[in-house]
Write a structure and sequence with these properties.
Layout (H helix, E strand, L loop, with lengths): L5 E9 L3 E8 L5 E7 L32 E7 L2 E7 L6 H7 L1 E2 H20 L2 E2 L8 E3 L5 E3 L6 E2 L9 H5 L7 H4 L6 H17 L32 H7 L11 H11 L3 H4 L2 E2 L6 H8 L6 H15 L4 H22 L2 H9 L6 H15 L5 H14 L4 H23 L3 H14 L6 H28 L4 H17 L4 H23 L3 H15 L3 H12 L3 H18 L10 H11 L4 H23 L3 H13 L4 H34 L10 H11 L4 H23 L3 H14 L4 H10 L1
Antiparallel strand pairs: 1-2, 2-3, 3-5, 4-5, 6-11, 7-10, 8-9
Helix pairs in contact: 2-5, 2-7, 5-6, 13-14, 14-15, 14-16, 15-16, 15-17, 16-17, 17-18, 18-19, 18-20, 19-20, 19-21, 20-21, 20-23, 22-23, 22-24, 23-24, 24-25, 24-26, 25-26, 26-27, 26-28, 27-28, 28-29, 29-30
Length: about 750
């Protein structure tokens, strides 16, 4: 068949319902998939309304990041052909055969569940959810495909048996397989069947001897998972409930329940495969020592099914002859598989569990073993017996022991040892709640250590009597104490500086040099205001008769600096520092306190004006100058917070612009509602009014909608054309040509 605008390459699949071809778009040379309805399909030539979704063009309404994108619906004579996105990353069945981690499986279920929820909200039922219809894009993101056999609910009734013919045996719900009414609950059952298939490699109920074609109709209960997956049994029970009302309400609920159930160390590290694990793979992981009893049971079950095909008469004779001899031999020698079967029957201790426990204990007692190796040993025990109390207690004890060890090393400033222990703890317990807090404290301790060493070097080279160096050192030591509370060296250094400057202040006051006395006392109070020596010297200076004159002179000079605009600069000759000098001698001086408050208000106004002009570097410089001049930290923190909020807003603007451009390229202009180009650009306008790039992209988005509208109009899809044109005018209402186009269509 010739399809206008496309070059057919090769046939990908041919079935009773449809045939699928790989093709190339002649204009863009982009690979696409073309789907043709087969004559045998219950929908005939695919033009009946209400079902056979793609062949009526209804699938074009499904726009979701986890649904394969439908591009256009073409009329080829009496047949309608659907062109959809080509996805080349393989399907879920392929990935399960190679092996998939539990976390990746949960991500896939969340994506497919979201796709189904979106389709259900649009009135579509898929009816053919199975691993082969879950594909992967090149970036690894899963997408749901093949709505070809789906129904659009609320419209025409499909032919008898249509739903049963659309699904895959083993993945259909009981009501779908039995020819009953279907709705979103049927899709959610199929999604649960996909989950069960991923966990066990089988379709539901196959383990009980029911064939795949019967599994949707004949099971009286939901299938059982292996013992080591028992935490997931409630999820499977609800997903595969025979009564549709007892299933999950939506795909998001199923995905959330699965995510919560696998958040345990044993399950989080599990890899699921849909084919039997080879001997080489077992040896590579466990060196042949460990195997789950449930896995052995399933292997034995497969062996028994194969042996049923042998001659029952020969088997019975062999059993009669060998029963006595074989039983005696097995009881006396007890090979591993026989001992395992006895353990499963409750007649003996599980030898694999015993071996795993002894190995874990041996690792724990070996001082040369890493924490990860020890914890892995205990997790092997829990893989065999999830309720093993001793293994659980051992892991919990190791968690607390190593957390306490890291904290103890940090408190003793043994940073290297704390870092090494934290690294081992992070590897063994990557989800431990205390890791983030311990990591932050470790970074703070390392920063404090570097700052302490640099400050000590500064004082060693400049001497403690150099006032600028001493001022910088005092601020640095206080920062060390903030990062590492109770740091003994930083506290000792501050005490020494406080005593040094208190002595200088006392000597200056005794010599009548009250200006320098006050300056020295200011440094001493900054180092340790609660020092008895500092308090005594302050009292001595306050008692000096000349102190009042010095204070008045400082206040007058501070007022002059304020008039000149010298609020916090230059160092030593600014209003803030002079007011702080007064307060160092007379903490209750009202004029100095009010003056310092006025300086703070002026700084806040300056910072606000700078932020309005996005002068971030200037604001940062102003904060540093104000801190050095002794301005209170509260107002400075307010400025810093506003600076960080503005910078974060601009960062969000850049991110939204980038994401909007990507979504625009992908065609997500106004859909889906949660994430589309127009919504992101509106957020940019809110955060950064007048952003030229956002305005330009909104224009591109509207123009793209007009292009789609015109293409739809050319294809005879007038309703869709008007809808897209209205969307374009909603985004950019002031385009006369588009309004004229709407009037001409009407």
């Amino acid at each position: 068949m010739d399809v206008p605008g496309y070059r057919l390459d090769r046939e990908l699949a041919h079935g009773a319902a449809r045939c699928v071809w790989l093709a190339r778009h002649e204009r863009t040379d982009r690979a696409v998939v073309l789907k043709f309805p087969s004559r045998e399909h219950p929908a005939g030539n695919g033009v009946r309304p209400g079902f056979a979704v793609p062949f009526t063009g209804g699938i074009l309404e499904l726009r979701h990041r986890s649904i394969v994108g439908a591009q256009e619906c073409l009329d080829c004579g009496s047949t309608r052909v659907l062109a959809v996105e080509y996805v080349a990353g393989g399907n879920l069945g392929d990935r399960l055969r190679a092996g998939m981690r539990a976390g990746e499986l949960a991500r896939v279920m969340r994506a497919v569940g979201g796709a189904l929820d979106h389709a259900h909200a649009q009135g579509f039922v898929h009816l053919d959810v199975r691993p082969e219809n879950i594909l992967f894009r090149q970036d690894g993101n899963p997408v749901l495909t093949d709505f070809s056999g789906g129904l659009r609910t609320g419209e025409s009734r499909p032919p008898a048996g249509y739903a049963a013919s659309a699904g895959a045996p083993g993945f259909m719900s009981p009501e779908q397989a039995g020819g009953g009414a279907v709705d979103r609950a049927s899709d959610l059952y199929a999604l649960g069947a996909v989950l069960y298939n991923a966990l066990t490699g089988e379709v539901p109920n196959q383990a009980e001897g029911i064939t795949a074609s019967e599994s949707g109709q004949s099971a009286d209960r939901t299938p059982r998972l292996p013992a080591h997956l028992s935490r997931l049994q409630p999820v499977v029970d609800r997903a595969l409930a025979r009564n549709p009302r007892e299933r999950f309400e939506c795909g998001a609920d199923l995905a959330a329940a699965l995510h919560k159930a696998i958040r345990t160390p044993a399950l989080a590290e599990t890899t699921f495969k849909s084919v039997a694990v080879s001997t080489e793979e077992i040896r590579a992981v466990t060196d042949g020592l460990f195997a789950a009893p449930a896995d052995l049971a399933r292997q034995e079950q497969r062996v028994r099914r194969r042996r049923r095909n042998a001659s029952r008469t020969a088997s019975l004779l062999a059993f009669v002859i060998l029963a006595g001899v074989g039983t005696a031999y097995l009881v006396n020698t007890q090979p591993l598989w026989f001992a395992t079967l006895l353990a499963q029957a409750g007649l003996a201790e599980n030898p694999l569990l015993r071996t795993a426990w002894l190995e874990a204990q041996s690792l724990h007692q070996d001082p040369n073993q890493s924490l990860s190796a020890i914890v892995s040993g205990y997790r092997q025990v829990l893989a065999l017996d999830t309720g093993h109390l001793e293994a659980q207690a051992a892991i919990q004890g190791l968690e607390e022991q190593w957390r306490a060890g890291v904290l103890d090393s940090l408190r003793q400033n043994e940073v290297a040892r704390a870092e090494a222990r934290l690294q081992q703890m992070s590897t063994a317990f990557p989800d431990h709640a205390a890791l983030a807090e311990l990591s932050r404290e470790l970074v703070d301790r390392k920063t404090a250590g570097a700052l302490l060493a640099n400050t000590q070097a500064l004082l060693s080279s400049q001497g403690p009597s150099d006032i600028p160096s001493a001022t910088e050192a005092i601020q640095a030591y206080h920062e060390v104490l903030r990062l590492a509370p109770g740091h003994p060296v930083a506290q000792q250094e501050l005490d020494a500086l406080g005593e040094h400057y208190a002595g200088l202040a006392r000597n200056a006051a005794a010599g009548g040099d009250l200006q320098n006395a006050i300056s020295f006392l200011e440094r001493a109070a900054a180092a340790n205001s609660d020092s008895p020596l500092v308090m005594a010297v302050r009292s001595e200076i306050q008692q000096a008769a000349a102190a009042q004159a010095a204070i008045e002179e400082l206040l007058q000079q501070a007022r002059a600096y304020r008039v000149q605009g010298l609020l916090v600069t230059p160092p030593g000759e600014n209003a803030a520092e002079l007011y702080n000098r007064v307060l160092a001698t007379a903490p209750d001086n009202a004029l100095a306190r009010q003056g310092l408050s006025e300086v703070t208000s002026q700084l806040l106004s300056q910072a606000a004006r700078m932020l309005e002009r996005d002068q971030f570097a200037a604001v940062g410089s102003l904060l540093d100058q104000a801190s050095a001049a002794g301005v209170e930290s509260g107002p400075l923190l307010e400025i810093k917070t506003r600076l960080e909020e503005r910078m974060a807003a601009l960062t969000m603007v850049a991110t939204n612009l980038q994401e909007a451009e990507a979504l625009l390229r992908q065609g997500f202009v106004t859909e889906p509602p949660e994430q589309n180009a127009v919504s992101l650009l509106r957020e940019v306008e809110r955060l950064d009014p007048g952003n030229e790039r956002a305005e330009a992209l909104l224009g591109q988005a509207a123009a793209r909608l007009v292009e789609v509208a015109m293409e739809a109009h050319s294809a005879g899809l007038e309703d869709e054309a008007k809808q897209y044109l209205e969307l374009a005018l909603t985004v950019t209402p002031d385009v006369p040509a588009w309004r004229a186009l709407r009037e001409s269509w009407e």
